[in-house]
Design a protein that fits this description.
single chain, alpha+beta, 5-stranded antiparallel sheet
Amino acid sequence: MRNQSDLWALWWQSEQVLICSPELYKKFGTSHSAQMSPKYIKYLFEQFDYKAFFKIAHNGDVYQQECKASGEESIFYIFGSAKKIKDDWCYTLWFRNISHQKSKIELHNDIINELRTERDIMKDILDNVPLPIWYKNPQKKLLFCNKAYANTLEISPEQAVVDQILLKSWQQGGRTPDLTELVLKTKQPQTQKSHIVIKNERHYVEFSETITQKGFILGYLNDLSEQETLQQEINHLAKSTHEILEVISIPVIIYNTNKQVEFFNNPFIKMFEMDPAWLETKPTFTEVLEELRTKRKIPDTEDFQTYKNRRLACFNNLLAPIEDIAYYPDGRTVRMVTAPYHNGGLMITLNDITDWLTLERRYNTLLAVHRQVADNLFEGLVVFGSDHKLQLYNSAFCRMWDYNEEDLSPPPHLEAIIDKIRTRIDYQHYDPSWDNFKKRIRAKIIDRSTNKEGRIKLYNDLVYDYSYTPLPDGSNLLTFLDVSDRYRIEKNLLERSEALELAHGIKSDFISMIYQGIKYPLRRILLSFTDMFEKKYGDLNSNYKDRLKNSWEEVDHILRFIENANDLASIESGNTVLDKENINIIQLIDDIKTTLMERALEKNIHISLNYNQEDIFLLQGDIRRLKQVFFNLLRNAIAFAVNSEFVSIQINDFPEELHIEISNATAMIPYEDSYGASKKLKKGENIITGLGFSLIKKIVTLHGGKVTLNHQKGTVVHCTFFKKHS
């Protein structure tokens, strides 16, 4: 025991003297000859359990315990036993310093735990990868697979490893070369693409396997079904695109990834006069460019090589469509759009915009002329587009509505324009609510049904006339005219007209009152005067009878004059309303002729009535007023006629007009004094001049006609009635 490397101690139950190894004596701090009690072990190892030791030892088992030495960091492994010899027990304890081994074990345990954690992390990562992944040894035995692999087979990962269910073998069935054999043979990654059935669905997949440095096989499965579908759609779309491009009128040419012609349409052939058979051979982009240069179908450049390199660079650098304007030697201007095509190709479209640029130039010139003309208009002009934004305006509009150029740039919306003029419009004159008034204005502009005109009042006594016109392109035109001065003049004239109408009414009422006040008293006075003569003198001689007759005629003349004045005042005041009916003009004038025939015979005057048709009607006439007209005219003609003279009446009916002419061949009837006082009448002259002729003209005018005079041969009165007006 003295030659053992471990520390030891023993004692007999009967002696209770501790015998130790030399190194243990040193730990107790004494010599090997010193006698010590077994309890000294507790001094060196406080954690030592005596009771457990005796119990285990007496049972014949080996006691084991790890304890820390008192006052040290060292850890000892204590083990011991007891043996009964004769009647005495011998106890033996061994103390092995395991501090160094303990540190290594703890270090190894930490490493193992870290590896386990790393393994769990990697397994969790692989299980969450959506791609099926597997790991095999050089003997092609499956060592690991993730959840995606197991889900593809609809089993668990553990079952796949235990049963060695290989995805390749399961789906390939030996119909294709073994991918793992190729990897082991070539020592290079290998890939295979094929269709397989996964969960009763057809999929297009890619198998990939590679060999690790230690000779193990790592593989994964990539589902390319979506890519296959997309590729089919792309191919279908490309085919459809080619069909569409074939029928459009824009020249198109497409180059593939290899810079070769893949597609061209007929407009391209016509535009550049190319040989379609040569293009079918799929020449390269450079060859096509050289051919176009030979035919002078591309812009002239000083450095063609630089131009060609710049165009070739589009195959690698172009990410979005670019647009170029090219000026060709034949005078054409072409808009060329170069766009990236799938898989690194290019699609080039060309559009001859020569005519379009000419039209645009003319349009801009015309627009500038229109703007210049609009700015020189007195009227304010504004145009709103179909989007209800300001499109065009002139300086008069800015001046009338107090706008600056800055306020109208960028073009504001109709709503902003209406809100801006709120402080200028006296909207309460039309509607107490601004919102309602604003809706009415907006509705008038937006509603494109008809043209609209109106008048709007502003503050500061300003009045604008507006006119709305919908334009053919969907725009809305508004014009404004400042009529403030005209409005004030019209207002003043209207007030004066109302005052004159009031004065005419007063005058008419006054004349009517005089007529009513004179008519009956004057007749009663003359009648009383006649009765008085007859009662006093009896039968009167012819001289007195003539005087009484003249007196009666003078009274009739005065009453007729006042009656005519009353009618004239009534017509001028606008209170006269015609009682209209269809009138037989021939019958009307013939009746008047019969009435005045006795007076004509007294002067031996012949009256002739002539007409060009049997029945002549005047539509919508007042028979009483027309009798008054022709009675006065015919009576005046008879009164001024000389004995044995003719008075002629001529009636001519035409499709549009009715002419009535009353003529006196010799007499000069004084009608010129139509608005003056009546001339002094000679004794026996019972005529109506002056005021009577003015009334005649008014009545004929009310019937839509006119009266003219001719004094070259006597007096001719010509009345014309316009049937259209009637």
